[in-house]
Amino acid sequence: MVLLIRKAGPKKLSEIGGKNHDRWKNISRGVIRPGTEEVGILAELFPEYALWLVTGRIEPENGHRSPDYDEVNRNLSSQSVG
After folding, report:
1. Which of 8, 60, 62, 80 has the fewest CB atoms within 10 Å, i.e. is most exposed?
2. Is residue 59 helix, strand or coil?
3. pTM
4. Banded model confidence at residue 75, pLDDT cuts 50, 70, 90
């Protein structure tokens, strides 16, 4: 979640969800835990990660990924064979 908060930025997230900017910053720093509202806002902004955010599972064949899954695939794609 922290990665997605940093990717979007606390300012944008506070504008989208109407939540306090400082709350998003504190969540990204690990000072406070996110609530269901914050998870919902991130799921709306990053629908490809919604299943992972809620359950911790991925189903790439159905378009449900995680940031780690995308990073691994990005690195594999950039490697040359031979």
Report:
1. 80
2. strand
3. 0.83
4. confident
